[in-house]
Amino acid sequence: MTDFHFDRRQVRHNFGRAAGTYEQHDVLQREVQASLIERLDIYEQTPERVLDVGAGTGRGTALLKKKYPKAQVIAIDLALPMLRRAKEHTGWLKPFSRVCADAYSLPVPDHSVDVLHSNLCFQWCDDVARLFTECARVLKPGGLLTFSTFGPDTLKELREAWAQSDEFAHVARFLDMHDVGDAMLTSGLRDPVLFAERYTLTYPDPQALLRELKGLGATNADSARSRGLTGKQHYRRMLDAYEAMRVDGTIPSTWEVVTAHAFGPPVGQSRRTEGGEIASFPIDSLRGSRRR
Predict the structure, then answer these.
(1) Residue 128 contacts residue 258 (beta carbons within 8 Å)
(2) Where are the domains of the chain?
(3) Left (φ > 0), alpha (ψ -120 to 50) or beta: where does 86 sit?
(4) CB 117 within 8 A of CB 60
(5) Would you say the C-alpha torsion 158, 160, 163, 168 has a positive or negative sign?
(6) pLDDT digits (tens, 9 = 90+) for 129-179
(7) For residue 112, how many C-alpha atoms fall within 13 Å in the half-sphere facing its CB?
(8) Which helix (H) or strand (E) holds 196?
(9) Domain 8-152+174-199+256-268 is of which CATH architecture?
(10) Helix (H) or strand (E) run with residue 63 in it
């Protein structure tokens, strides 16, 4: 589905390194997080287990625990240093658990999660078929998946500026909303709803944007990235190209945010694969079957 892949070890390294600076730069992340929390009102039941996948420093996890004080709320992140910082947001009265794990392999049983929440994490999972199959596995039938992710127009100005400097991949690439929606349907998730919004953040100069990206841990982890040092001339050409995009005295940066929700499929619902449709269900549900 994709013509690019992320280096998972590099993703873990980038976010682990940024654990101490993340909350100095997460203005957009907080804005999107607030919207996601509001969308949880479509789930009218009282959840028993809530996952926050890609929890980072745990701000969002604390909001989930506040909304669902009686639920078991679990913060999951690929980067252990992020989870260590998340301890600052878990209180004695409303504690949440912290587990270091990959979104591709969630450490919970099948059909055991009522609400699976993820704020601006899934963009680092380029294998969306595997990602949403895992989401469908852990969700209870009718359980809610709600998430946000970055779309392909994110950082388009920075990407264009680098393209005028050299041919290497310097900026992460992200999937189109339609590819995400198709993967959700293929995995068996029910009634997916997606929409995209564009935010334009402004900076005094390109270097300020680059510092923010590093502080967030959102630096390039594309497996096709150049492994060598970027030469001063290439870097200077990129800065000059970005300066030419200055508007009203500031440097613009586009962030395309895709927000979505869907529901867990009933046990045994078929899912599409390259070889056709596959359905799975417990053998005990086969009434009248004879065992020898």
Answers:
(1) no
(2) 8-152+174-199+256-268
(3) alpha
(4) yes
(5) positive
(6) 999 999 999 999 999 999 999 999 999 999 999 999 887 778 888 989 999
(7) 10
(8) strand 190-203
(9) 3-Layer(aba) Sandwich (3.40)
(10) helix 59-67
